[in-house]
Structure formats: structure tokens, C-alpha cells
Specification:
mainly alpha; 87% helix; globular; transmembrane; transmembrane helix; Glycerophosphoryl diester phosphodiesterase membrane domain-containing protein; membrane; DUF7847
């Protein structure tokens, strides 16, 4: 097994994005940035306040939950289309969108499987906590903290091991379970390299997005006051973060090709 080359993936991604930016960025802005921005604007004020204050969680309208689900599905659809463009040079945007639509049910199925497994683990953990709480409450409290930390570690581990799931889904004809097994196998032995890659790209996206929000927010405040600052800053952050995501997705596609060649 040869080590994945992040540097090679970056060089290939930069060259590919420079060559195909007229195809990639419209798809990313329409199906990734725009749904995210709409969801941001639809977020109930009390929910936004809760996120900042960490108080008791308010009631969330069912319409917002449904909108969030639809928004996430659209973003996944757009991501699959971007992977199709990155993995199949010469494919048109229309062909990429049709391929994405045909493979989207498989991606949704894998998400349901993963969520089901995580829920099962959480239920078992809660049952253990309840059992211990009947014997010794201090032990149960410590166990809750341990299980929360363990749950976070499991989710992080799974997200890294399944990093190549989207390219596996869009590049092949496998079903739900076969796609999960294939993606898991491709990342075997590459966990720490992929973890570092994800960490760096996530931090970079957060930093440049926040910087864009602050800078353009100041401009928006000068033009239209506080509401203008919020809207212009949010749009700028979404656009800049989407640009970073395009490079990240293309890099993941190149890493997938490296893993497939092993």
C-alpha cells in the first residue's frame, strides 16, 4: 500500500479547477452555497440565539426541519454533481446533474445506514447510563461524559473512514452496503493523513469564511446598517467557503483516484 499524496492531489486540483472553473463554480454556487444561505436566512431568531447563548433549546418549527432536510439533500445532490465533473473529464454539466440524480438515492441510503448505526450505539449507551444511575448516580454522571467523548470520537473516526464515500457512489454502480464497504476499504491505512487533510481544510474554510464575513459585513453596515452587514457578510462568507469546498471536493476526487490505483 502506497501513501496518499496530499501534495499531488493539491497540484492536480489547482490545475483542474483553473481549467474547469466555468463548470464547477456555477454548480457549486447554485446547489451548495445558495441552499446553505437560504437555510441561514430561514433559521428562527430564537434558534440562532440559543446557539450563541447555549441555553435551553427552543421549539423548532416542523417547517424549518423539513426545509433543512430538503436543503441538505440539495447540497448532497450538488456535491455529487461536482464529483462527477471532477472524476469524468469531458462530462457536461447536464450529464453530471443527471448522473447525480440517479445516484442520489444510494447516497441517501448510506446516510440512513450510518445514522441508524450511530443511533443504535447511542441507545445502548443510554441504557448503560440508566442502569448505572440506579446503582450509583456519580458513576452514571461520569459515564455520561465518557460516552459523549466516545461518541464524538466514533463520529470523527467514521467521517474520516468514509471520506471517499461520495466519489465511490458517483463513480460506480454499487448499492448502499457495497458502497459503504468500498469506501471503508479505500481509506484503510490512511486515517491520519486524511484526518490532517480534513482538519486543515476545515480550519481554512472557517478562517477565510469568517474573514470575508467581517470585511464585507463592515461594507454592508456602511451601506445599509446592521441588516446590510448581516446579509452582505453572510453572502460573502457563503461564497468564499464554497470556493474552498470546490477545491476540497476536487482534492478528495484525486485522493480517491490514488486510492483506487493502489
Amino acid at each position: 500500500m502506497t501513501a496518499m499524496s496530499i501534495g499531488k492531489a493539491w497540484e492536480e486540483a489547482v490545475a483542474f479547477v483553473a481549467r474547469e472553473r466555468s463548470l464547477l463554480f456555477p454548480v457549486a454556487l447554485l446547489f451548495v452555497a445558495l441552499p446553505g444561505l437560504i437555510l441561514q436566512e430561514m433559521t428562527p431568531p430564537e434558534l440562532a440565539t440559543w446557539r450563541m447563548d447555549k441555553g435551553a433549546m427552543p421549539d423548532i418549527p416542523a417547517s424549518f426541519m423539513l426545509s433543512t432536510l430538503i436543503g441538505v439533500i440539495i447540497i448532497w445532490f450538488g456535491s455529487l454533481a461536482l464529483f462527477a465533473l471532477a472524476l469524468r473529464p469531458g462530462i457536461s454539466v447536464g450529464e453530471a446533474l443527471r448522473l447525480s440524480f440517479s445516484r442520489l438515492p444510494v447516497l441517501l441510503g448510506t446516510a440512513l445506514v450510518v445514522i441508524g448505526v450511530l443511533l443504535a450505539i447511542a441507545i445502548v449507551g443510554m441504557m448503560v447510563v440508566v442502569a448505572f444511575s440506579m446503582v450509583a448516580k456519580p458513576v452514571a454522571a461520569a459515564l455520561v461524559m465518557l460516552l459523549l467523548a466516545g461518541g464524538g470520537a466514533v463520529m470523527l473516526f467514521a467521517s474520516v473512514r468514509l471520506l471517499l464515500l461520495n466519489p465511490v457512489v458517483i463513480d460506480g454502480n454499487e448499492g448502499v452496503m457495497a458502497s459503504l464497504r468500498h469506501s471503508w476499504a479505500l481509506t484503510r491505512g490512511h486515517f491520519w493523513r486524511l484526518f490532517g487533510f480534513l482538519l486543515v481544510l476545515t480550519l481554512l474554510s472557517a478562517i477565510v469564511g469568517s474573514a470575508a464575513q467581517v470585511i464585507f459585513g463592515l461594507v454592508g453596515r456602511l451601506v445599509a446598517g446592521a441588516e446590510g452587514a448581516r446579509l452582505v457578510g453572510g453572502v460573502a462568507a457563503a461564497v468564499v467557503s464554497t470556493v474552498v469546498q470546490v477545491y476540497m471536493l476536487v482534492m478528495i476526487a484525486r485522493l480517491y483516484r490514488q486510492a483506487e490505483a493502489d
